[in-house]
Amino acid sequence: QVQLQESGPGLVKPSQTLSLTCTVSGGSISTNDYYWSWIRQPPGKGLEWMGAISYSGNTYYRPSLNSRTSISRDTSKNQFTLQLSSLTPEDTAVYYCAREVVVAGTWAGFGSWGQGTQVTVSS
After folding, report:
1. Largest CB tally within 10 Å, which of 9, 27, 66, 69?
2. CB-count exposure of residue 62 (10 Å: 0-12, 13-18, 19+)
């Protein structure tokens, strides 16, 4: 039932900040045990988990991206957002939002995914 939809620019310039929004329908981002995540896939490479925000607003980031990444939420709109700063061409990827389930500190897997959105970093 839960659906996720990414939105944001498809083309951004190096050194700028990427802002993507995930709109969630069919469920609340404040529901217990759900974590709302961003994952990306550069061309020819595997999936890379970037970070997540929990149902209570706690954030978690991949260490290598921690300094450039910010995930926030707007519970009134049932949305969460990704901001990735200091972009380089290596940030070119398909970006996905997804739902994870974490119960009592134990990861229980991914649930729904968005369809993904292509982001190209180029001047």
Report:
1. 69
2. middle
Residue-wise pLDDT tens digits, 14-64 = 999 999 999 999 999 999 999 999 999 999 999 999 999 999 999 999 999
- Supply the pLDDT for residue 105: 86
Output the CA angle 72-13-35, nearest 5 degrees: 20
- Cα 108 to chain centroid distance, Å, stands at 18
Within 10 A of 119 (CB to CB), how many other CB atoms are there?
21
CB 38 within 8 A of CB 95: yes
Give me the residues paired with residue 59 across strands.
53
When pLDDT is cut at 50, 70 and 90, the band that residue 1 belongs to is confident
Residue appearing with tokens 């951004």: 12
β-bridge pairing 48-54 and 18-25: unpaired
